[in-house]
Amino acid sequence: MSTGAAVAGPDGALRCPWGLSTDDYVAYHDEEWGRPVHGDDALFERLSLEAFQSGLSWITILRRRPGFRAAFAGFRIEKVAAFTGADRERLLADPGIIRNRAKIDATLANARVLADWAEGDLDELIWSHAPDPAARPAPRTLADVPAVTPESTALSKALKKRGLRFVGPTTAYALMQACGLVDDHLAACVARGAR
Fold it and tell me: In this structure, are residues 148 and 177 in contact, taking their beta carbons and an 8 Å threshold?
């Protein structure tokens, strides 16, 4: 039975337990998750993928990320905002992505909203919700890692107020974790603090 504590990987280094379940996860855990992401297009991609992940395993999204990037023009906001009804139908038929109508529609609608924002606005809005790193101790086990925080709830409300969809507090917190607004690598994890 897992305690949720850091686990030694094949190289002997301690990692968050979820980061050892597949080779894809090891690379994502070690090289990407929890590291700061900036730039409107990069954050739009992460926000969109977190929305697509809702109700699914992250590995499902991670393994299809190249397909998502191809289907959504590299998540360049201006390009996705210009997608037509024909593009929507193409996405709904694309086996390289998750063909969920509500999530596809939300991604397209979000791009149209974001296309009207000034450059840097999405980055500034998201990062303005980053909590003080000293305000929370490093989690020792997975049980210490929350699914929602007051900051993610506030971020969700701010994004919704500006017209974005599929951005609930849990999705907002997953975004905060993935994009380095918080460092939820376990205290003993080799990737903790690798920013």
Answer: no
